[in-house]
Design brief:
Elements: E1 5-8, H1 13-24, E2 30-33, H2 41-51, H3 61-66, H4 75-84, E3 93-96, E4 99-102
Parallel strand pairs: 1-2
Antiparallel strand pairs: 1-3, 3-4
């Protein structure tokens, strides 16, 4: 059985859709509601490495602007900002073993299976 961790926001339609898709395949992921349990900067770095993307690609622009973050900032500043303001992290993110996928669109979370 595949173990999946889902960084999830229950208020986000895409995140709910991704969770539903996993469940329809018989997978009950470990859910991390990242707004109430934010990832630390080292956890964000690990996730970015698994996704193989720079921090700016994980940034929600509108939310980032509201807290003073921008894609022009350094990688370390963005990661620190995301850890401090988890609402700025794009979602959902699925992780299984050494694989991770950003659920944009929601179907992409299935790439970790």
């Amino acid at each position: 059985m595949t173990t999946v961790t889902l960084y999830h926001n229950p208020r986000c339609r895409t995140s709910r859709t991704a969770l539903d898709m996993l469940r329809k395949r018989g997978i009950e992921p470990t859910i991390i509601e990242y707004l109430s349990t934010p990832p630390t900067a080292p956890e964000i770095k690990r996730i970015l490495k698994m996704l193989d993307i720079p921090a700016k690609e994980l940034l929600r622009v509108k939310e980032a602007r509201a807290v003073g973050l921008s894609k022009e900032m350094s990688e370390d500043k963005l990661i620190a900002g995301m850890a401090k303001h988890p609402i700025t992290i794009e979602r959902p993110i699925a992780i299984s073993g050494r694989k991770a996928a950003l659920g944009r669109p929601a179907e992409k979370v299935l790439e970790v299976l």
